[in-house]
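Our working data are protein records whose layout never changes between entries. Instead of coordinates, the fold is spelled out as a row of discrete tokens. Here is such a record, shown just as it appears in the course material:
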Amino acid sequence: MRNRVFWTILVAVGLIFVVVSRLTIANDYFYFAGYVVLQYIVLSTAWNILGGYTGYTNFGTGAFFAAGAYSSAVLQKLPALLLATLQWKIPPVPLPIMILAGGIVSGLIGLGTGYLTLRLRGVFFAIATLALSIVMQTLIVNWGFVGGSRGFYAIRPALAPLGGSYIQYLFTLMVLLAVIAVGVARSIERSRLGLGFHAIRDDEQAAEASGVPTLRLKLISTTISGGLMGMAGAPLPYYVTYLTPTSSFDLQYAVNSVAMPVIGGMTSWIGPVIGAILLGTIQQLATVMISSAANLLIVGLLLIAFVTLAPNGLIGLPRQSPFLFGFRGRVSRRQIWLSFLLPLIGITIAVNVAGLLVEMLQPQIPGVALAQLFSFATLWPQLAVGAKRCHDRGRSAWFLLIGLIPLAGPIWLFIELYCLPGDSGDNAYGPAPEATGTPLAQAA
């Protein structure tokens, strides 16, 4: 598919997604949760440009992300500063300009960091990027103009530019950023630039001996990756409304930006998207139904599982032939029952019984709801057979579509319980302010 056609389809999908969500979902919690998932799509895609395409593991996601966030903080305070010092009166800087500025600042930081550290390789480069994040956090903590360690209050405008609530506006902007990030990653993958990145990843010394300008390409990779991360972080002050170094340098950003491409697959643009949607949705479900403290535990368990069983991620399963693709030739009914149906039915029954017992002993834990979410896994036997047949015919893309079907059940249950209008006011942030009569600022 040509880049022009792909960009057209991608923009159309993003536009349809925004319009349909605004017309059908009125609860703002959907947009709070959707914003986080889309943000991780941008972060994981940006990380994959350097970590997946070029082969340089970056643990400094928090530095680039926070640079974009604090660029927005500086631009928000800029009109008051110019008025107090130079008597210049300028209008407030709009958020799209802040996003662009955050991308430029983070891109320049990526360029400078790459020039200083890209002569390092392997674990030494990873340690250097981690040190960058620590240095950046120390500078922000001691920078009084943006609040330092006390934090910074971001005042949202009274009216959203595109109508609706301001969180819907932020959600729309993050959809646009996700479209840009995915489009850029796919365009790079299909270009000569992407071929150079892949050559560096496979064997940098051989690529350099063949005439590939490795240093120049690595600098381009760090600049693009850092710029996209900064653009993802620029709306953060208006999302959290109270920006602190702890929230902007949160460990989850660095961990998730690495885990999501690993789970989805680092060799293609679609891998980080699949990993971000899958892992981001699971984390939002865990936040609502269990606790936000369980998010890193879930990430760790999934990383262990995928590194052990599927090191090439979900998109590498058809080439690896483990588990679902372990059969040879035609799949018999006996193989289906022994290898799929009976084990999963037994596990599902045991999980539902365990969930019922947990809810009886600890009523505050939704054991039955969690068991029902797991019960969607019973769809995997039938889907595995279809995936096997598609794989035998060389249609690997169909396996990805089939494999994502079980995710539709938990997503719909999440939307039905916590996002659709009605008696679903309670969510992970507590009772809805309009239901209790508590002002929104006080509830936050």
Notes: The chain has two domains: 3-252, 321-424. Residues 321-329, 395-404, 422-444 have pLDDT under 50 and may be disordered. Residues 321-424 form one domain.
